[in-house]
């Protein structure tokens, strides 16, 4: 047997791997839930968009930011359904964290400049903006209209442009009386492995996420010397509201194991990456597109047997 095949045979079968991955993530989730309060975001005033979905990256991150001692969280979604639940969940777990929920479109210029102004007015400072709102289109190229293309660009990319433009201006405002003696802050955007290479999304979705990755690099360059950092997180395929159908379909067909290379509940791991980027632990990380994807984007698709 070739060494390539030996390596493959040593791996668990996909169903087993899916089960052990799920168990591993549940363990991580319970460790996170039971870990003592952190201090990595103490005193930080943060804005997060796309927090409305119960299984989403935005909600998981909001709870994590509260756990790490954020001072005030401004939480935005255009769907208001689950905002009261998120506010009360954080209120029960972390009563010292102020939470303001807002129903708004993350791609609306006035809404985003407005929430940055609101943070400055109420807290005198802005430290973190996590531009996470997004949606995934489904059509193959022949069925993708110009309208769908522009929707993807508007919701996924224009929303990030607004975040960078208005948050970076707000983050440069100093306010020693509120503990902010220097300009600075961290802008984090959720891009995707689809923005790095092909095979992970539709043409319009991938183009919009590539734009987000580019916005991080070009704006980090323009914002140098003011200590406002801009980075993206590129998640792999993880189970949230956006991808629920894909996971349900795979479970129905009994092929869930095949998506088990990826991380079925990875939203908590994305949240951990967001905490790192929001905190001063990452003070030397700037202009980067960071894949948090279990290795998905590190490799070309594997065609078993071709390399032996
Ligand atoms: N789940 C994945 O596998 C995956 C992979 C790569 C990237 N992403 C990205 O992660 C981000 C979060 O997605 P998720 O997986 O948590 O999906 P989700 O659908 O569970 O959550 C997305 C949230 O964003 C909100 N939203 C969408 N458009 C908005 C807008 N214009 N203004 C305000 N809110 C808006 C939705 O209402 C929803 O609550 C998205 O940017 C998505 O593209 C997800």
UniProtKB/TrEMBL annotation:
Pfam families: adh_short_C2. One of its GO terms (molecular function) is oxidoreductase activity. It comes from the Eukaryota. The keyword Oxidoreductase applies. The keyword Membrane does not apply. Keywords: Oxidoreductase. Belongs to the short-chain dehydrogenases/reductases (SDR) family. This is NAD(P)-binding protein. The lineage of its organism: Eukaryota, Fungi, Dikarya, Basidiomycota, Agaricomycotina.
